[in-house]
## 1
Amino acid sequence: MDKFIIEGNTKLCGEVEISGAKNAAVAILPATLLIDGITTLENVPNISDVKIICNILEALGAKVSWTDEHTVVIDSRDLKCVNAPLEMTSKFRASYYLLGALLGRCHHAEVGIPGGCNLGARPIDQHTKGFEVLGATTSVSQGKISASAKKLIGAPIYFDVVSVGATINLILASVLAKGTTTLDNVAKEPHIVDVANFLNSVGAEIRGAGTDTIKINGVQSLSGNHTYSIVPDQIEAGTFMLAAVASKGNILIKNCIPEHLDSLSAKIIEMGGKIEDLGDSLRVSCNSKINPTNIKTLPYPGFPTDLQPQIGVSLAIANGTSIINESIWESRFQYTDELNKMGAQITAQGKTAVFKGVKKLTAAHLYATDLRAGAALLIACIIADGQSELYNIHYIDRGYEHIEDKFRKLGAKIKRVSE
Ligand code: UD1
């Protein structure tokens, strides 16, 4: 197990290049299984979740090769319509996309109940309900979830809750179904639009991604020999924007889509930070005291739950009291106990946390409790007085590429140590 040792008190300044979006990559890689051909994906983030999916695709008979650090070629012509290996699929959350992709291509899919970060209950009833409307039968037993259909027939599906995963999974299951599927009350995150753009680029007919209703006209097949570049990671960009604020630094965030970060930019300005929109990059700085503010996490275009712990670090040192209301995940305040070890004054109960700003955080030994909490705690260690140690950093490696190198280039003093 690796850990980080971090020398604190650093003001982060310089440039950082944002990688391709984790949440788009973990959906688009399974989506290539729908293609009876070869696909080249560029701007793929080199992170552990992506490596696990590539291993799963290989176990299913696809040939996967990396032609450079961020380019993957997937040849799905010899796909075996077999069950995905349980020990691999149950390790991470996004393995549920194999259900939609394999159901679409093979009409049968079985994966281990998806694992991943512990953020509280993570039901997938909207996924299975959608598959059943298309004509599949689904079942859960012995730690596995399976879905089978003789034929998939397009139909209207109305989601009871707005779910990123269910929206993408039903797109995957319906692109090769017979007839038209209409998905209502869908999620609108940028990576959903990216999945739809990818599938359309290989011949799917998906309209309306990014709005409340998505319409999919089923096609007979998707074409190979195509190259697609994955969208920049909105959450990684937001993490560095918030690192600039918390450290009272000045960071040029290159290769991002500023529009995807509007809800965060508005909050940073409210908090006293400065944002310069340079088209495909953002400069974020903060010279003054951080103003307190209130946050409620919501589906896109609302404030992303995946940036909630990172903004929590800035609010922990704001000049007054802030409140965060977490409306998506029930256990997303575990990082606040860790910040309190550093002298923060945060009281979290249920879906609400009250942040009474303190002047300074002080070094401590901390445990990442999940991916985004890990990124937030790393920022806290970088700005705290003294030398901190951060454990459980495999969570961070799941979703951030070379995070310590990127922070080091901005002036942070971080060492990775293998124990
Ligand atoms: C995705 C993201 C995750 C992010 C989350 C919310 C990926 C790989 N992960 O997760 O990083 O935190 O969106 O933006 O893209 N729900 C149900 N039934 C379902 C599905 C979801 O009730 O069948 C509920 C969940 O309990 C949760 C809410 O809907 O309260 C949102 O979940 P969802 O958008 O599905 O999250 P994920 O796709 O798992």
## 2
Amino acid sequence: MTPKTICITGATAGIGQATAKCLAKEGHRLIVIGRREKRLKEFAEVLRKEYMIDCLAISIDIRSREEVQNAIGALPAEWRAIDVLINNAGLAAGLDPVHKASLDDWDQMIDTNVKGLLFMSRLISPGMVDRGEGHIINIGSIAGKEVYSNASVYCATKHAVDALSKGMRQDLLPYGIKVTAVHPGAVDTEFSTVRFKGDQERVSQVYKGFEPLRAEDIAETILFALSRPPHVNIDDILIMPSAQASATQIRRK
Ligand code: NDP
Ligand code: 8X3
């Protein structure tokens, strides 16, 4: 594959970090984004040294329209032509019924999973349109295909990612831009630690007695979608652990 300039949000952990490594191995130039600045910079340095690639680290909160606008607007000339955008940053906060859940948790999920993805896409897609090529990969979830109890807002944000992926594919079709949605089931990352705000007892229950997906499984799936020839687009992938049949059905030992 010819080296491309690829922007990945949420590259300080989990799926984003594994994807950055997987794409660095293939020799791509990477823009990595996340809030934890020290961790991001150290990671970018590892990518440059281990894989000998160009890597630009941008520490921003994608919930902030201003931070996203300033960062994309200030990209050095050699980083402006972004071939691929991977909208991966996202989270679940809490697991509570609608009458008890925290409004702050709702704000955080909606602002990150939906509005952050939109800010990034709105600012990066015009360059793709001008160049008549590009690829946007959105990370959805099994929670974007089904709804489960105590997660109505997380599921709503991921259903929104599903809808936005379909809508973007239609809007960007005339300009030769591919849009792919990747929807994972349970992946063992920092996801549950974030959801349960560090409560390790609850986190350990999530992955107990079965083998979840690894972040690398999703990275390889993203690489597969990216490396298809120009006439092929992977629209939508639902990827689950073998032990998981739906959002709530898991075969545990
Ligand atoms: P992690 O918590 O391991 O990683 C999330 C990443 O998103 C981190 O790098 C975090 O970095 C970044 N992030 C979160 N909020 C922001 C923000 N406001 N601005 C910039 N970066 C942000 O989780 P995963 O790797 O599992 O999650 C990646 C995606 O995959 C998410 O969209 C998630 O919903 C989805 N997903 C996860 C599944 C799972 O079971 N793990 C299953 C299905 C989908 P930092 O904190 O440094 O900002
Ligand atoms: C993450 C997977 O099942 O916790 O999106 O919603 S799940």
